[in-house]
Amino acid sequence: MTLKERIDTDIKQAMLAKDKARLQALRSIKSQILLAETEKGGTEGISQDTEMKLLSKAAKQRRESADLYAQQGRQDLEQVELAELAVIEQYLPKQLDEGDLRARILEIIQRVGATGPSDMGKVMGVASKELAGQADGRAVSQAVGALLNNTDF
After folding, report:
1. What is the DSSP letter of 119?
2. Exposure winner among 2, 65, 73, 135, fewest CB in 10 A?
């Protein structure tokens, strides 16, 4: 079952359950998928990699919005964003914890033969492809920088 089919099924369930918050988040995801499909000009759908990028981007947007609303003291809007984030995260692969992220990046550093901070681009290119959807890009970048500079992150 593709992501789009799962979303459609979950939209129907949310409608039957009258779960407005979940329904809004699911419709938002479906909208982004449909936009990506029409952007390509094809009707065959989008790749799983593209789906994960869309979901990661949507999750990041919700996180940033929730942070902004929290800074502004708008807990009502913050809760809406956090509820949508929780729904989106159900479709993303399990996120790596710090220890697993560090181990995966160390393995990538050894594989590409990186020796210092000047190899950051080389490591980030491989890490961002391999860890897409499993870790936030900012966390990956910080971990790579810290490990290449021989500091803890």
Report:
1. G
2. 73
